[in-house]
Amino acid sequence: MPLRGPKPTPTHLKVLAGTTRRHRLNPQEPQPDASRPEAPEHLSDAARQEWGRVLDAIGQLGIVTELDRAALAAYCQAYGRWVSAEAALSRMAERDAATDGLIIRTKAGNAIQNPLVGAANKAMADLVRYAAEFGLTPSARSRVSAAALDDPDDPFAEFETGG
What we know:
Elements: H1 11-17, H2 45-59, H3 69-95, E1 103-105, E2 111-113, H4 115-133, H5 138-141
Antiparallel strand pairs: 1-2
Helix pairs in contact: 2-3, 3-4
């Protein structure tokens, strides 16, 4: 049976956001060590560049572990697909000043939305969804305060157990 309501927030993000309450914590929550996972070989060039850019930024926060590799790869690959689709649309727009490549004609002569528009929109929606998992969107970041981390080796050092 699927769980209802919002997804639970990991403890380390609650600590960063300053919303920890002892009665709301999961004492059995796994606490994997922060690490810098290697990029999967199958990533596109654009995805691989995004992997390096994002990992540099979020790696400093100590919130990435080896267990996050697949989710981060999914984000980066969605980014790579979005870049590819947008580049293809730009090339088509150069040849079609009337519709900027957004509309194409079928073999029967009907005007339809370019399938690349749908591909770009889907990839963009996927990357935004994955980005929120890592605090990479403005709204997701507004819930986290990385300044609370004084000791990068102990993200719970500032955790106050009262409350």
